[in-house]
Amino acid sequence: MADHLEASVTLPSDPGSVRAARAFVLGALGEWGLPPGSDGSETVRLIVSELATNAVQHTLGQSPTFTVDLVLDRDEHLSIGVTDSHPRFPKRLPAAVQQDNGRGMVIIRWLTAECGGKLRVRPTREGGKTVTVELPWTAPAEAGTEAPGFPGR
Hints:
By secondary structure, this protein is an alpha+beta fold. It has a single domain (about 5-135), classed as Heat Shock Protein 90. Helix content is about 30%, strand content about 25%. It has helices at about 15-30, 40-55, 105-115, and strands spanning about 5-10, 65-75, 75-85, 120-125, 130-135. Strands 1-2-3-5-4 form a five-stranded antiparallel beta sheet. Helix 1 (about 15-30) runs antiparallel to helix 2 (about 40-55) and helix 2 (about 40-55) packs antiparallel against helix 3. The two termini are about 20 Å apart. InterPro entries: Anti-sigma-factor_SerPK (IPR050267), HATPase_C_sf (IPR036890), HATPase_dom (IPR003594). It holds the Pfam family HATPase_c_2. One of its GO terms (molecular function) is ATP binding. Keywords: ATP-binding, Kinase, Nucleotide-binding, Serine/threonine-protein kinase, Transferase. This is ATP-binding protein.
């Protein structure tokens, strides 16, 4: 595998784009050796789903698009970034028992920690933000052996 792989897509801030973001990421990961349905791909699918949903729902119409970036460095680290043009950073909401939404960042933080990864939120030069999840990546030792994935998953 290459030392550095990248994939990126920009989508409209529309609820239908969440599905497109998941499909894009699963396709890229499949090309990089992580089969659909594996624990690793399901973890990334859920993280991207939550980040994309946040980019659509919580930018209050102030971000017409959002971008999903994937970077795989030296078969060691997978970086998942979602960028929108809204300046407000995600907030940790109090968890109410009857609450139907607002748990996306809690889910992302939990999955990231479970995999031994890191979560970062940074402002962009244009005034928006990028939420990045960095996960350790375990590549297969030989073709036909165990699929790549994430430690602890």
